[in-house]
Structures are given as structure tokens and as C-alpha cells.
Amino acid sequence: MATSSIAAPLPDAAPAGASQRPALSPEHQAIVKSTVPVLAEHGVAITSHFYKRLLNNHPELRNIFNSAHQSTGTQPAALAHAVLAYAAHIDDLGVLTSAVSRIGNKHASLGITPDQYPIVGENLLASIKEVLGDAVDQPVLDAWAAAYQQLADIFIDFELDLYQQSEQTSGGWTGWRKFRVARKVPESDEIISFYLEPADGGPLPHFKSGQYISIRVFVPERGVYQPRQYSLSDTDDGKHFRISVKREAAKGVAAAGLVSNVLHEKLPEGAELDVSNPYGDFTLDVEASGPVVLIAGGVGLTPLLSMLGTLVEHAPQRPVVFVHAVRNGKVQAMKGYLSRIIKDNPQVSRAIFYEYVDDSEQQGVDYDFEGRLEIQTIKDKVLLPDATYYLCGPIPFMQTQQKSLEALGVPPERIHSEVFGSGVL
Asked: Which residues form the FAD-binding FR-type domain (predicted)?
């Protein structure tokens, strides 16, 4: 799956401070690369053990990690995949540029600090030894210690740059800032938009369409603060941030949806919550001049609405196709907004897919196609010369659309997607 090609390249030289640490030698690289088969087989066992060990030894970090991802195994699996990819490409880190950008942006939105990396490294190395036992000798541990330090330095340097950019931007900040819920607006049976304004009354930084913020709320069922990332669903007006949150059906304390339920049920207008500076590298290329095709699945329309608003306000000469796949009209958000945009902007067209159609819904008015989104069905509408494609939605949805577009001849570098997965320290 393609990610944003606007990611910054990895540094050619070691980051600041790295010169005082042992360099990763060719011997270390060879040893790390030789562990790829072991990591492929035992990686999830190692990372599952690692998270239990880390959070038992440092319970204060429970306020950083997504507890639902811990319970379901999503985060250990994501870390195992990241470690495996790092080991496999230890001698060609340029391959990991987009992954470093995506994870580094998420870390910045969570306020990850350099002093947390040694804690992670200590527990990760200990977990490798404790899970694999005598199969791991000292040279392997030494090689992985050097490899982890190299990776930590890359992330620390990348995130430091993001923090500096935030602090140097008018209205920007690092860490958490108190915001007030100015308005709550229902958008569908499942989605509510939250209009957030700074509690201190200060200015807001400009953000790029497609970026997200982290929010942090207290979850009573877990007894901890929990952060989540939500795309900014409005254009940048310097007065408020808007997030549009789908309420997930949380079933038990181990389920996803705990935070969305807190937001929907327990955060009234006037309440305060913690908010990060905007981050993320899935952003609209405002310098391009060709057509734009926005393809959303469900609540994945949120960053694409921001892009749509920016395009009609600042680049009305660019043709735009807005494609949205949703279960039915009751859960389709922002129908009125999209209709007004299309009515007032002849360069914008749509293709709305309802998986299930109600008798009260009219084709051509409420929706355009019945069933799941098939790019082949609308290829004449979306295959435009020099078009750029932006995808957001569930990962299987994006993978399907990516493959379909490539099969129809769209170059992968013209396809960008947002991935809200588990970040790793």
C-alpha cells in the first residue's frame, strides 16, 4: 500500500548525539540480518512479552499506549512487523523512509520524548533474551543493541525536527494543550463532529489538509488516560479544529471504541480535553495542478473532506472526484455539505456507493451505485490524465482500491493513503 510520498528522507549522517555511541558495524548488520528468519517465526511472541514487561515495569506509559490495541494484539503485531522490516533492510534504510515518517509523526502527536527510548530498548533486548533463551548469544544481543540505538537516533532526530517546527509555527506547541468543546454536531447515526477551541483563547497554527491531531481523555473502564488520533475534517480557518468521530460499539474493557464512546456520551459542550499540535504526512499536494480523486470508505472521508474544502477554496481550476463507499444513508456523514459543494462547484463530481439501499433513498439523489465500491464500475470517471489519488478508510478497503487502481494502470507514486495503525517507540 502506498503512503504519502511527501515524507522527508532519512538522514545520511548520524543524528546529533549519535557519534558518542558505538556505531553499527558491518558485522552488526550481518548478525541482525541473519536473525530475520527467527523474527519472522517468533516476532509476535517477543513483542507481546515486551509490552507486558514494559508496562509492568513502567506503568506510567499506560497513558501513552492504545490499551485496546494491546488487548487485541494489534500493537504487538505492528511492532513485530516493524522490527522484522528493520532487520531485513538494515543495510538499506531508505526503504523505510515512509514508515519512519508515519511513525515519527504519530510519536510527535503523542509527545514521545528522547528519554523514553532507552527504556524501550532495555525492555526489548531483555524480551528477546527471555523469549528465545539460549538461542540468543552475546554477539546477537550486542548487534541488536547497536541496531536499536541507530533506529532510536533516527526517530529522535526526526521527531526533534517536528517539535522544532511546531514551536516555531505561530500558535504551535508541543505536548498537550487544553481545548474546549465549543460545539457538538451530529453528522449521521454514528458520527458527531466536535468543534474544538483553545481553552487559553490563544491562536491556532495553520495545518495541512489531511493532517490529524491526537486527543487524550480519561477512560474510567481502564483507569488511565487514552490518546487517539483523529483527522481534521474541516479546512484551516485559524479559529477552531474540527474532528468527526464515529462511535464504535465497545463491548467490554478489551474492545476498541472506548474513547469514541467517552467522546460521544461523556464530553458535553463546554468540556475540556487534551489536544496535540497537528501532525501527519498524508497531506494534499497544493502545488500540483492536475485532477484529484478522493476515495473514502466510511468515516475515512474525514481528511478527504478537508482536502475537498481546500481544493474548492484555493484551487477551483482542478477537477475533483469524490468517491465514498458507505453502508447506507443513515450512516453517511456530511451529505448536505457534499451536495452544496457539488452544486456550487461544477468542477467537482461524486460517486456514492451504498452497500444497502433503503426504500426511501433515491439513486442519483442520495447515492449513485448500490453495492460495494468497484473501481472498475467507475473507471471512466476516475481514470483522469495526471490525476492524484488519495485513499482513506479501513486497511482492507484501501488495499483493495490500491490494487484496483494499479491494475487499471495508475502509477503507485500517484496513490497516497492514510494508515492509522499502531505506532512503535
From this structure: 174-285
